[in-house]
TrEMBL record:
Keywords, alphabetical: FAD, Flavoprotein, Oxidoreductase
EC code(s) of this entry: 1.1.5.3
Record-stated family: Belongs to the FAD-dependent glycerol-3-phosphate dehydrogenase family.
Cofactor (UniProt): FAD
Gene3D superfamilies: 6.10.250.1890, Alpha-glycerophosphate oxidase, cap domain, D-Amino Acid Oxidase, subunit A, domain 2, FAD/NAD(P)-binding domain
Protein name: Glycerol-3-phosphate dehydrogenase
This protein's record includes keyword Transmembrane: no
Length: 507
């Protein structure tokens, strides 16, 4: 990566859900796009969410009706466009004396059902809990409603793949170290974080979609003050052995009005979160505190028969959400809405910066941001992403695809078939290719992870390290020992040395 080459219409800085969404939308409108990400795709906030596609039932309490309506509409579109990594989820809300009256909750759920058109999901209802439920015996009444679940990291990766299919250049482990505005283009210096090599490229528009780094990027690369600051709020989660009875999730409201979800996770676990804590420091270094762990366990233990202890925590993670800073109110009440700032003084080449946002509305945010960019590119195309199916999502029904895959590869273990469908959808055929036996999948690393899948992830999904593969691409890290991780990392390093590549370019 040395020398000077290339002029783009749009360079996007940031490989999270908003950055990849804007890159995909802009590339689909015919613009020449480059996206750079200093680490792995979704390596920060976008892989550390509660993994929900939801309207935000609790946002109704803060009168954010427009945000909820928009999120509910987006929920339907996303479920249709990526059925392999997203699916409907029923939530149960146990009713407790400290909550609002039952009639008021029913009214709120009615509003939630009808704020936007609902095509795929059933409506809300009252429920009675029995001894078969995992809740404590004294909890007998509650409510049930629909939302959706998403593999957040895979959403980002597949959005980047869609952008690349449309002609975008995706550079991971590539830092934007300098951006200087000229009259016609930005001059952008990119540095490979693995080799240290640099190159200079030019772009007619620059997008700052750096998430929790959006404000600091102005000073570090452009020597200018940010137009606004963000409020960094840390959300932490724990993963514990399965608490959910079947496929239902639970939404628990504490007396301090905070919400904690208990969500079925992978095959054997439950995901519990989240917290809302104001955060200062490097977002990449955020970790869960003992106080947060105790807080999450205390809420679960208030509702569930099985009492959690710290020894039950299989894994934990923390993400820093870049929320719009209203400079008042508690962290949990900070708005999840988004805004843009477009800076184009005296007709010079524009800079668009993204502030705030939430996972569910990333497509709408990306569409609105690209609309603003296209004011500078009058020949660009129009809206197209609402019905844009992500790679592997061209099917209608999980069980049918799983049955078809099992028929084509009858020797595949059932657990592996199920996971391949959830991760890759119809791209499972591309991954497995002409394999005729388990031996054809190559070295078995751990769980249901084999060499052939690892090679696919390196070649087609920008994976470089064991962490990329075990946590952001497959979640097989839940079953990995330290020795397993070291074995996989050694294998990856040997392949890089063999090919002379520090990281692969998908193709």
């Amino acid at each position: 990566m040395t020398g000077e080459a290339g002029t783009y219409d749009v360079i996007v800085v940031g490989g999270g859900v908003n950055g990849t969404g804007i890159a995909m939308d802009a590339a689909g409108r015919g613009l020449k796009v480059l996206l750079c990400e200093m680490n792995d795709l979704a390596s920060a906030t976008s892989s550390r969410s509660s993994k929900l596609i939801h309207g935000g039932l609790r946002y109704l309490e803060h009168y954010e009706f427009r945000l909820v309506r928009q999120a509910l509409a987006e929920r339907e579109a996303l479920l249709a466009n990526a059925p392999h990594i997203m699916w409907p989820l029923r939530f149960r809300l146990p009713h407790q004396p400290h909550l609002r009256p039952a009639w008021m909750i029913r009214a709120g759920l009615f509003l939630y059902d009808h704020l936007a058109k609902r095509e795929r999901l059933p409506g809300s209802r009252s429920v009675t809990f029995t001894s078969d439920d995992p809740l404590k015996p004294g909890i007998t009444r509650g409510f049930e409603y629909s939302d959706g679940w998403v593999d957040d990291a895979r959403l980002v990766v597949l959005t980047a793949r869609k952008a690349e299919d449309l002609g975008a250049t995706i550079l991971t482990r590539t830092r934007c170290v300098r951006a200087e505005r000229g009259s016609d283009t930005w001059q952008v210096t990119l540095q490979d974080t693995c080799t240290g090599d640099s190159r200079v490229v030019h772009t007619r528009a620059l997008v700052n979609a750096a998430g929790p780094w959006v404000s600091s990027l102005f000073g570090s690369t452009m020597d200018q003050q940010p137009p606004r600051m963000i409020r960094m709020v840390k959300g932490s989660h724990i993963v514990v052995p399965r608490l959910n009875r079947d496929s239902e999730a639970y939404i628990l409201q504490n007396e301090d009005e905070r919400i904690v979800f208990v969500i079925p996770y992978e095959d054997h676990f439950s995901l519990v979160g989240t917290t809302d804590v104001d955060y200062e420091g490097n977002p990449a270094e955020a970790t869960i505190s003992d106080e947060e762990t105790d807080y999450l366990m205390a809420i679960v233990n208030h509702y569930f028969r099985h009492q959690l202890t710290p020894e039950d925590v299989v894994w934990s993670y923390s993400g820093v959400r870049p929320l719009m800073d209203d400079e008042e109110g508690s962290a949990q009440k900070a708005s999840r809405d988004y805004s843009f700032e477009v800076d184009a003084p005296d007709g010079k080449t524009p800079l668009l910066s993204v502030f705030g946002g939430k996972l569910t509305t990333f497509r709408k945010l990306s569409e609105a941001a690209t609309d603003r960019l296209c004011q500078f590119f009058p020949s660009a195309g129009g809206h197209w992403t609402r019905t844009a199916v992500l790679p592997g999502g061209d099917f209608d029904d999980h069980p049918q695809l799983q049955a078809a895959l099992q028929k084509r590869y009858p020797w595949l273990p059932e657990l592996l078939v199920s996971r391949l469908v959830r991760c890759y959808g119809t791209d499972s055929y591309r991954l497995l290719g002409a394999s005729e036996s388990l031996d054809d999948l190559g070295q078995h690393f751990l769980g249901t992870l084999y060499q052939r899948e690892v090679q696919y992830l390196v070649r087609h999904e920008w994976a470089v390290t064991a962490e990329d593969i075990l946590w952001r691409r497959t979640k097989q890290g839940l079953y990995a020992t330290r020795r397993d991780v070291e074995t996989l990392d050694r294998w990856l390093q040997s392949q890089q040395e063999l090919t002379g590549l520090r990281h692969a370019t998908p193709g």
